[in-house]
Design brief:
globular, alpha+beta, about 25% helix, about 60 residues, Alpha-Beta Plaits, two-stranded antiparallel ribbon
């Protein structure tokens, strides 16, 4: 799976990083970014949970 963070929607709450730290981190701009693509199979469940937990729907599976 591939993921993309839509920067215009991201508020930098950090939920995705807390749920899937192997996939997401907050950048210097305070917004989330995917640090691996494609997402390793072992991290896919956490990544899907992060997508569902994002309060602004800023993370999309591609």
């Amino acid at each position: 799976m591939q993921v993309k963070v839509i920067k215009d929607n991201c508020i930098g709450c950090g939920a995705c990083q807390a749920i899937a730290p192997n996939v997401f981190e907050l950048g210097d701009d305070g917004l989330s970014k995917a640090i691996v693509n494609p997402v390793p199979e072992a991290d896919e469940d956490d990544c899907k949970e992060a997508i569902e937990s994002c309060p602004t729907d800023a993370i999309k599976e591609e």
